[in-house]
Specification:
Number of helices: 13
Strand order of the largest sheet: 1-2
Strand content: under 5%
Shape: globular
Structural class: mainly alpha
Largest sheet: 2 strands, antiparallel
């Protein structure tokens, strides 16, 4: 196989794995229980997720729940209202670090937000070795490049598996600034079609903010949430169970 098609396939595979952990396991599962993971599966996701995404499961869930509680107010950890669309990229990284440090230090306010999760902050972050997952991605990328003889394939893997900061920015910034609304929510959440198509339905923020406990983010016939298709496949395989939402 030529290097370019192989690079595309490697990128898509790595990107899909990254998105699977964030949108299905972290977001719809741990944060909202729109899909139900067994306690054993929750622990597996938390232990492996840090190595797949570079993002701590407990800290991500805590920050996301704070976002829903205070969406587009000054207490929102990542709102473009106060940081700007471009400035939000840096803002969300600083907010994540703040939440992570607070959880490591057992700050009562943050602990209460995720009190229902029988999870600990990953040992990687607790020991201040946050860079190790990203270093492992780089090592695997170099290994793929060496094995295949193509630097493009190695780079494709690294870009795909480490894509969450850009995905998160697109959802948090663009889908709270540009799009259309199906529901009159108290925040600025929008349904951004392009973000939804690229990030597994996550761009349908207005739908999601109206019904955060629903696994399916697409509510109209022309909306496509391929993240929900991942949920259906995993449900069929017995990995998770799709919960009944307040909308249905």
């Amino acid at each position: 196989m030529d290097a370019f098609p192989a690079s595309v396939l490697v990128f898509l595979g790595a990107y899909l794995l990254n998105v699977l952990y964030i949108t299905v396991f972290y977001h719809r599962g741990l944060a909202h229980e729109a899909v139900i993971l067994s306690p054993r599966m929750q622990r597996f996701v938390a232990k492996t997720g840090i190595w797949v995404t570079g993002i701590d499961a407990k800290a991500w869930v805590c920050m996301h729940r704070l976002h829903h509680r205070h969406s587009d107010t000054q207490k929102d950890p990542h709102s473009p209202v106060f940081a700007g669309v471009l400035g939000l990229f840096r803002k969300q990284l600083l907010a994540y670090r703040k939440v992570l440090v607070a959880l490591i230090r057992r700050h009562d306010h943050y602990d209460k937000v995720v009190a229902d999760l029988d999870l600990e902050v990953s040992a990687v972050n607790a020991r201040k070795r946050w860079y190790l997952p990203y270093l492992s991605h780089l090592v695997m990328g170099v290994g793929l490049a060496w094995i295949t003889g193509s630097a493009w394939i190695g780079a494709a893997f690294v870009l795909g598996i480490s894509s969450h900061p850009l995905e998160g920015w697109a959802v948090n910034a663009l889908a709270h600034s540009y799009g259309y609304r199906n529901y009159a929510t108290d925040d600025n959440s929008q349904n951004n079609t392009w973000v939804a198509w690229l990030v597994a339905g996550e761009g349908y923020q207005n739908n999601h903010h109206r019904y955060p406990d629903e696994a399916r983010f697409s509510h109209r016939w022309f909306e496509w949430d391929w993240g929900y298709q991942l949920c259906l496949v995993l449900s069929f395989c017995g990995v998770l169970r799709i919960a009944r939402s307040t909308r249905t």
